[in-house]
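Q: Here's a chain of 614 amino acids. Please give me its 3D structure as tokens.
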Amino acid sequence: MIRLHFPTVSKLSSMLFLLIMLVVAPIRARAAHWKPVPGHLTTPWTKLVNPEHVLTKYPRPQFVRSHWMNLNGLWEYDTNSSGPLPFGKRLPGRILVPFPIESSLSGVMKHSANIIYRRTFVLPNGWIGKQVLLHFGAVDWKATVFVNGKKVGSHEGGYDPFTFDITSELSRGRKQELIVRVFDPTDDGIQPTGKQSLHPGGIYYTPVTGIWQTVWLEPVNRVHIRRIRLIPDIDDSTLCVSASVSGNCEGCRLEGEVFVGKRLLTSAVGYPDTTFSIPIKGERLWSPPDPFLYGLSLTLMRHGTVLDRIRSYFGMGKISIGKGIKGTTRILLNNKFVFLDGPLFQGYWPDGLYTAPTDQALRFDVETIKRLGFNMVRVHQVVEPQRWYYWCDRLGVVVFQDMPGPHRADNYKARETRLSDKEFKTELRRMVQTHCNHPSIVMWILFNEGWGQHDTRSLAAFVKRLDPSRLLDDASGWTDRGVGNVIDIHRYPGPASPRPEGDRAAVLGEFGGLALPAQGHLWEQKHWGYRVMRDSSELLERYRLLFDKVWILEADSGLSAAVYTQLTDVESEVNGLMTYDRRVLKINQEKAFLIDRGKDLGPMKKILGRSIAR
């Protein structure tokens, strides 16, 4: 096993150290009410979490405005939801937002289906006269929001962002009070829950309740850009742009400017709620070996006055189904067949559960995928924060994105079933609309192994209407309904390949599961795996044999993609190539890189007759 090493801070001069301590001391005093709850694993980033500066990066990298205010940090909370809301009253507990209440980093690490959050804030003077938007990255599951004692809105959905215009409820010249009431029934509800469970074990994990992504404020004009859609067309060398606008946009126009670094490449003018094209001459295509990103500025103007300006980025890429060598149906990236292999990614952290401790931690997981030689990842039964997809875009990792599975209890009656199906479709739509501009995402996966599977054909058509530019997997494993762009099977340990069809490519959605428990890095002593290895040497040899067969299936059976289970251990599951705490890589990185790229074949090399370079 390889113990991963992380950089340490160099020694400071005594004068600089004293200066830093003068700044840090009051921060430590204010943060004295919080500390991670001990008892489980920590990551290398756990100790870097500072209540005064929590996840401080702008949370929406493809829709950036210059001014914003981060509301992450210590909030008051209570789990007693009975009685009137505590307007103007302090709550008894302290919780670190945006870490879910069940996590160590929240400072609580207890489950409750009901949470009341409270904090105050003061608006910057420069925001006077602006509309103020209150953004939530994600809250699981139902959130009702109050500002200065007045309800501003509610939202149901555990994986998608939502926004309220709170301008009319703000008071000038004093602190503003924000209260969020959350209800999350998890197993007892109708909503998609992915792998969360009130009874974790095996392939199901600790539930995530409450605020789990960044909360923030943003000033805008009354007329402002609300949403954008970016669709690259590499065959026509253009970027298609559309933007919806809030407020009366009569007489408005949009100016789109494309940049390479700081150099203006090209520009075009369009209008709100219509689509216009920006020509991209000499386009540089986005791909895992060369994840090139163009900068984009969109300016909303009326009669020469700038009403709104956002910064974004895009990649010129294309995913499609076509014919490869010998006429085999293949997944094509930029009109060429590229075999896609990568790990299953569960999106859990031992200290923050759904919420990574820092942005560096988010980046680390994506970099590890690249270092192991993979070019793809399957995001399994969770939807990540937008900054995670930003790192996939920037570093060059193709994403197969699951829709978290719906909870369909055995005792559901007809009404509960209808409500569950309706909620699933609503959250599915939001997932696609929220993340559809990321160049790394190439396929949406509707269902996993028949979990709550329903109305497959109509939902597949629904997603295709929402986003015709990407592939669709109707079901990963078990219950294929003959629709979508791929036919996907699971085999443990495998591998195996379905037979490609006339217009559907073959995908191995899960295989592997080679388990190696690493003492000192276990969530609990009771653990499990699909196939348990004795040591890292046996793991490497079995891993090489599995991928020998994968490359044969790619060459001889028409397999287009394969997903290995999995990147990290998760709670009692020890099938990861890396431990749950991200401190130990169980497999030799250099050898794994060659294996995953088909450049280091074992005994099967003689059968295949050649080494496949990818």
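Q: Can you summarize the key feature?
A: Helices lie at 14-30, 359-371, 386-395, 414-435, 456-466, 536-556, 589-596, 604-608.
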